[in-house]
Structures are given as C-alpha cells and as structure tokens.
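Read as chain and fold; for instance:
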Amino acid sequence: MEQDRVSECAYYLWLNRGRSHGGDVEDWLAAERMLATPRFDVVLTDAGENKIALVRDLRAVTGASIKAAQKMVEALPQTIGHGVTQRDAERLLATIHELGGTADLRRA
C-alpha cells in the first residue's frame, strides 16, 4: 500500500517536471521524502470580528479568489489549508490568530 502512494506521488512529480525522461530515481526519492514529512490540515472554526482583513489575508496566503475566500470565512468550519507542512500550518494559524479568528490544526 505504501509503495502505491509513493508511486502515485512520483508520477505527479514526473508530470510536473514536464514528462522528461531520466529522473525516475530522483522523483521516487522526492516522493518518499514528501510522504515522510507530516502534513496538517488547518480548519478555520471562527472568523472573529475582523472578517474583511481575514478574507484579504486568506486570499493572499491561499491564492483563492475574493469569492472563494469569502465563502471560506462564511461557511464555518472550513478547511483552509489541506495537507500543508507544519511550518506553513503554523504560519497560517498565526495569521488567523493575529486577526482575531480561531483555527484548529489537525493531522492530515
């Protein structure tokens, strides 16, 4: 089962690399490293008082459109960071807490 996940991840790395040949070992090793790194989901549970600033910052962090960021803030609880590294999850949590919102960190 684990080998299937590594194979799938390596395949997507190969696709992102432009399907060029000769990098299969590097793709496989990169996929193993990616899967070994713990991933987290950041779930927004409360937007707080400053929803406009939260929408603006979520848009900047996630790259979402204004409408998508508004939907994230209005339809709670909402996963706003899916499968992110611990460092990125902590940054996102800090941004949310600075703006008065609350979020949970869950292992993906």
